């Protein structure tokens, strides 16, 4: 709470699509610190060391990993950051499942920078209150 | 016994389909409008609700979702719609729907979903039950010292009766907690507990607050208003700081205790009360009685059963346990991991005299937990008041032998004193701004970097 540096929120992006991540990283770089991992391998370690304020994760990672496994991993942590799930082919079924498992909201990957920022700001605000 | 479902939909065809489909496994109640739905929600023991999103006006279903949760927070609601869309799915889930499906969902899938929802409901009820247990714990008297054990014993001894109890003890020792514990352990625990602070209410309003008034009793009294005694009904009325009760009211309270009778202000009808009276004081009522400020007959009536709550300095063995308890609470409130105190800090807690008793201890723990950024809370995070008393008294007792020594000591003392004032100021400032330095600096009108320097100097960085 009391430290010399200006508090900048860190966003952890979990996605195997480099092009998409590069795209949104450019949009968000001015406002947030961005950390990017491509799989769930080291997700807990990354959360503990980098203390992200939000996780932005794709529903589908690689061929055999689904983003849903993320929630079982987060259960092991005392204070897991809120998760925003995203997908480039959203369906009602996956949204319902993701949000039942604990995602705070869902975002289609087609969302523009305005929508993305407003979702992130809203989640950050809810987290602080 | 079959589980009961409620289907809320204004489309008769779909209601019929669902009832037919689910009727063999569940008792299906149906509502075609909200009034009917509400009546069922209030009277029936439901396990799952199926709610049409487009029920009534456009997308009204989502608003009803919240109303249903207000009536029964544990009841899972499945939203159903003609065409489930991605946008409304997010919205529905955020508002707390258990699931969101389209009307074309297959019967098998629907049954699986309803069973999942029932499971969820059991889980929610269990969580709520655990939460209630935790809340009940709230009025626990913590501590294993002989003084505290004795206190618990006395509470248990008197709780079950209807006996009036006088609770004495210094400020901050937890007299109200004792009163609430008595209430909780009595057979009146489900009845009201009404607290009445005799010192906080202006003299001329006191009787009005306590006994209520009739319409027209005085200018502005256009409605009859029940007093605290009436609100307490057959529960408990707790008089805090009874020593401050005005003398007219003392006489009326005595009548309540002896005859169980009173009148509302401006009223002629005599009313009866079943309320149990508990009272607390931090002043010596003997003194007040000798000075003529407290009625003798009332005093003897109250002090028949007296519980004395010991000051914290007489139960120092409980400090570690209490500190742990407050640390867990602080972590819970701030949503952070549970912190702990360094050995030196805990030692300081044991050396200090705690004139403000448990209230002071609680505030000290909460503010230190808020200020410390590390998991371990050190002595530098404590309010200097808690630390200096023991250690500084050593140098304060030392008598300087020469002028030069006196001069050095004088300088040291002045520095220490001004540092202490500074630290106290900064500590409060940080607490007020939840540790946000930029905001704190802005408020006192200095630059952030200067504030940083000051914090560092006082060991608060």
Largest sheet of chain A: 5 strands, parallel
The general outline of chain A is globular
C-alpha Rg of chain A (nearest Å): 14 Å
Helix content of chain B: 40-55%
Question: From the 3D coordinates, which CATH architecture of chain A would you assign?
Answer: 3-Layer(aba) Sandwich
CATH superfamily of the largest domain in chain B: P-loop containing nucleotide triphosphate hydrolases
Mean pLDDT of chain A, as a whole number? 85
The whole-angstrom Rg of chain B is: 31 Å
What's the tally of helices of chain A?
Answer: 5
* Termini Cα gap of chain B: 63 Å
- Could you give a short account of the major beta sheet of chain B? 5 strands, parallel
CATH superfamily of chain A: Response regulator
The percentage of residues in β strands of chain A lies in 15-25%
Report the β-strand fraction of chain B as a percent range: 5-15%
**How many strand units of chain B?**
16
Q: Using the 3D structure, state the CATH architecture of the largest domain in chain B.
A: 3-Layer(aba) Sandwich
Please write the CATH class name of chain A: Alpha Beta
Kindly identify the CATH topology of the largest domain in chain B.
Rossmann fold
How many individual domains of chain A? Answer: 1
Structural class of chain A: alpha/beta
Mean pLDDT across every amino acid position of chain B: 86
List keywords for this structure.
heterodimer; A: 129 residues; alpha/beta; five-stranded parallel beta sheet; two-stranded antiparallel sheet; 22% strand; B: 461 residues; Rossmann fold; Helicase, Ruva Protein, domain 3; 3 domains; 19 helices; 52% helix; extended
3D architecture notes:
The complex is a heterodimer of chains A (129) and B (461). With 129 residues, chain A is an alpha/beta fold. Chain A has a single domain, classed as 3-Layer(aba) Sandwich (Rossmann fold), CATH 3.40.50.2300. Chain A contains five helices and seven strands; from the N terminus they run βαβαβββαβαβα. Chain A has helices spanning 18-28, 43-50, 69-74, 92-101, 113-128; strands at 10-14, 33-37, 54-58, 60-61, 65-66, 83-87, 105-108. Chain B is of the alpha/beta class and 461 residues long. Chain B folds into three domains: 3-135, Rossmann fold (3-Layer(aba) Sandwich); 143-310, Rossmann fold (3-Layer(aba) Sandwich), CATH 3.40.50; 314-457, Helicase, Ruva Protein, domain 3. Chain B has helices spanning 12-22, 34-43, 61-71, 86-94, 107-136, 146-159, 175-185, 203-211, 228-232, 247-259, 285-290, 296-302, 319-334, 343-351, 357-371, 384-397, 403-432, 437-444, 448-457; strands at 3-8, 26-31, 48-52, 77-81, 99-102, 165-168, 193-197, 212-213, 225-226, 236-240, 261-262, 271-272, 276-281, 306-308, 340-341, 376-377. Chain B has a five-stranded parallel β-sheet, with helices on both faces. In chain B, strands 7-10-13-6-14 form a five-stranded parallel β-sheet. Chain B has a two-stranded antiparallel ribbon with strand order 8-9. The radius of gyration of chain B is 31 Å and the shape is extended. The termini of chain B are far apart.
């Amino acid at each position: 709470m009391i430290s010399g540096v200006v508090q900048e929120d860190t966003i952890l992006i979990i996605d195997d699509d480099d092009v998409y991540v590069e795209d949104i990283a450019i949009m968000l770089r001015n406002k947030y610190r961005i950390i990017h991992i491509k799989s769930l391998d080291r997700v807990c370690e990354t959360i503990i060391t980098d203390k992200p304020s939000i996780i932005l994760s794709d529903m589908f990672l690689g061929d055999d990993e689904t983003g849903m496994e993320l929630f079982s991993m987060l259960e092991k942590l005392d204070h897991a950051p809120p998760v925003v799930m995203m997908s480039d082919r959203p369906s009602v079924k996956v949204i319902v499942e993701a949000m039942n498992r604990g995602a705070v909201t869902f975002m289609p990957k087609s969302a523009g920078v305005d929508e993305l920022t407003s979702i992130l700001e809203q989640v950050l605000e809810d987290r602080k209150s | 016994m079959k589980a009961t479902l409620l289907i809320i939909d204004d489309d008769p065809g779909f209601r019929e389909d669902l009832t037919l489909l689910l009727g063999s496994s569940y008792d299906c109640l149906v509502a075609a409008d909200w009034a009917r739905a509400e009546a069922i929600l209030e009277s029936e023991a439901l396990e799952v609700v199926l709610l049409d999103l487009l029920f009534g006006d456009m997308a009204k279903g989502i608003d009803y979702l919240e109303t249903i949760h207000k009536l029964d927070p544990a009841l899972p609601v499945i939203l159903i719609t003609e065409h489930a869309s991605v946008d409304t799915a997010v919205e529905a889930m955020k508002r707390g729907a258990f699931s969101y499906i389209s009307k074309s969902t297959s019967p098998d899938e629907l049954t699986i979903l309803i069973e999942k929802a029932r499971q969820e409901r059991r889980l929610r009820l269990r969580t709520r039950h655990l939460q209630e247990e935790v809340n009940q714990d709230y009025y626990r008297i913590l501590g294993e010292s002989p003084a505290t054990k004795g206190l618990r014993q006395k509470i248990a001894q008197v709780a079950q009766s209807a006996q009036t109890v006088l609770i004495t003890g210094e400020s901050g020792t937890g007299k109200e907690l004792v009163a609430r514990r008595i209430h909780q352990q009595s057979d009146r625990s489900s009845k009201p507990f009404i607290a009445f602070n005799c010192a906080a209410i202006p003299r001329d309003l006191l009787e009005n607050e306590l006994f209520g008034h009739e319409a027209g009793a005085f200018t502005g009294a256009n409605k009859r208003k029940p007093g605290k005694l009436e609100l307490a009904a057959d529960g408990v009325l707790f008089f805090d700081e009874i020593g401050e009760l005005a003398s007219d009211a003392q006489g009326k309270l005595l009548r309540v205790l002896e005859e169980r009778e009173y009148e509302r202000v401006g009223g002629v009808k005599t009313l009866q009360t079943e309320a149990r009276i508990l009272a607390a004081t931090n002043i010596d009522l003997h003194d007040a009685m000798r000075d003529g400020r407290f009625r003798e007959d009332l005093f003897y009536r109250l002090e028949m059963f007296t519980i004395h709550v010991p000051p914290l300095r007489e139960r120092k063995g409980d400090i570690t346990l209490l500190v742990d308890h407050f640390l867990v609470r602080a972590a819970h409130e701030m949503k952070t991991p549970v912190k702990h105190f360094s050995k030196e800090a805990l030692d300081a807690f044991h050396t200090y005299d705690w004139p403000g008793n448990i209230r002071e201890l609680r505030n000290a723990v909460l503010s230190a937990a808020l200020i410390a950024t590390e998991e371990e809370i050190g002595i530098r995070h404590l309010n200097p008041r808690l630390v200096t008393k023991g250690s500084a008294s050593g140098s304060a007792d030392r008598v300087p032998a020469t002028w030069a020594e006196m001069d050095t000591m004088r300088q040291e003392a002045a520095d220490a004193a001004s540092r202490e004032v500074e630290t106290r100021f900064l500590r409060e400032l940080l607490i007020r701004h939840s540790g946000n330095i930029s905001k704190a600096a802005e408020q006192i009108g200095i630059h952030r970097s200067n504030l940083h320097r000051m914090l560092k100097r006082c060991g608060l960085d």
